[in-house]
Write a structure and sequence with these properties.
Helix content of chain B: 10-25%
CATH superfamily of one domain in chain B: Oxidoreductase, molybdopterin-binding domain
Strand order of the largest sheet of chain A: 2-3
Structural class of chain B: alpha+beta
Distance between the termini of chain A: 39 Å
CATH architecture of one domain in chain B: Alpha-Beta Complex
Order of helices and strands of chain A: HEHEHHHHEE
Radius of gyration of chain A: 22 Å
CATH class of one domain in chain A: Mainly Alpha
Distance between the termini of chain B: 26 Å
Structural class of chain A: mainly alpha
Oligomer: heterodimer
CATH superfamily of one domain in chain A: Cytochrome c-like domain
Largest interface: A-B, 56 and 64 residues
Number of strands of chain A: 4
Number of strands of chain B: 26
Number of helices of chain B: 9
Shape of chain B: globular
Number of helices of chain A: 6
Amino acid sequence: MMRSLPIILCAGLCSGAFAQESPNLGVPADPEEVAAWDIDIGPDGAGLPPGAGTALEGEAVYAIQCLTCHGPEGNGQLNDVLVGGHGSLTNPAPVKTIGSFWPYATTIFDYIRRSMPYLTPRTLSDDEIYALTAYLLYLNGIIAEDEAMDAQTLPAVVMPNRDNFILAYP
Amino acid sequence: MQGAFMANRKSASGRNPRNPEQVAGNGLLHRRLFLTRGAAALGAGSLGLLTAARAQELSPWMRIPGAPMTGHGSRARYEDHIQRLTTSAPGTDGSGGSRTPLEALEGMITPSGLHFERHHSGVPDIDPDAHRLLIHGLVDRALFFDMDMLSRYPMVSRIQFIECSGNSRLTGLAPEPVSGTCGELHGLVSCSEWTGVPLSILLDEAGLDPSAHWILAEGADAAAMTRSVPLAKAMDDALLAIYQNGERLRPENGYPVRLFLPGYEGNMSVKWLRRIKVTAAPMMTREETSKYTDLLPDGRSLMFTFPMDVKSVITSPSPGLELAGPGLYQISGMAWSGLGRVARVEVSADGGASWAEAALSAPVLDKAVTRFRMAWRWNGAPAVIMSRAVDETGAVQPTRDAIIAAKGVNFAYHYNGIQAWRVDANGQVANIHV
């Protein structure tokens, strides 16, 4: 037993600048609770829920939920421009949109689901979010108007700017 | 703030100050001048207000008892005009930011009520008794914590800055210098004492899987904002901050608990923290892909540029503060680096032709704002004043030209160029590019 003491001390002192003994008060969370809290979508599509939607369906949702702030067909209003800007990233005034800049299509679903619409977040159905995602990809010329987005097709979409990011970390 | 930022005062002794030692061009003086003689020796001159005050026999506040004690104090009513400058996205009043009025403050600590803000869907009104933090993902056991539990964990306190990585781009990357106060141009940086629980303790308690390399942090605001953070940072010096400057966090700074990542771009220190998911890889959220990536001239973008580089700015004199006339002044400013301590700050009063080392006000702390000061005898002629910080890693604050030559004008984040202020013959101060 005595031989293991130095190892324990090192684990306590070396695992981080502030490693200290824990009072161990955390309450275990069961998988159902975690699932209810975890709404993240990974770039590989991990976390995407069942459901599907097309651009045709998304256009109707957009008109009701998004158009006021983001303008017809994803631009023309004061809030973030969602469409266009292709080939503009080397211009004096680049236009960074979903189509011209975003590297992952899954991020569209993740962001709409957690944050949008601005005044009523977390109110859209998964089908509506798939449809909106499809509509924004269609407006940017990345998928066809009748192409359904779902847990399989969305992560397979290759965004035009995907390979133009340089990792500064690690 | 209008009017004289530092009026000359007549020497209390009536003696003329000795000729101080000049250390760089256009009137920069050795820091001993202020350190050894104090304000009483600032030089000759008089002020109308002082004369008026002398004429009164007894001030009104000396004729009646003052106000009673209060349960929670507030600043002098004469200071109520010192406010954060807020700007928000069109159609919203809570998505945007507010800037610290740096030109009105001194020392290294930002008053909590003037700490800059950056929100994505307003400030949530969180009941601390109902707030929960979930740690899950690549851990042996997913765990919930409430605020009572967190308050029983060992805490540490550290004085450190936080800076939005979009700070200063408004002027630095504009073709022409933008008119504005120091706070309007650079006020997305603040410094506080943060007290909280090292995140490493809670991650150790949950038990890390060997495949874990990142965490995702999520806020409890209506935007449920998320950022991916390297696990190495989370285990190194990340805090779950609960106190700011001795009191519980202000709502706009993450009440009841926020992530605090020393030296990293502010957006990653997720406020109103409700969830940490341990992952193998970054989640590529909107905030780390479409935002907070640095677009280069060739159309490619840098991703995961986390530390805020060495930087400084002169807060006084600065635009909106005017010099009352030729004479002795103290140049005061702030310097900081996300890579460590500030090693030195150099000041120029001749547009960069010559530099002298400023006095650093103790304590000089790791990843904290450091106050620097420099004595300057202004001769009344137009002058350009600027500061340049160097940190303990040897990193030198670059010129605006050097940054633009290296990264263009569209990178939008992590601008840390040298700021120059032009003082004209009337004592007015303006933002210029040099």
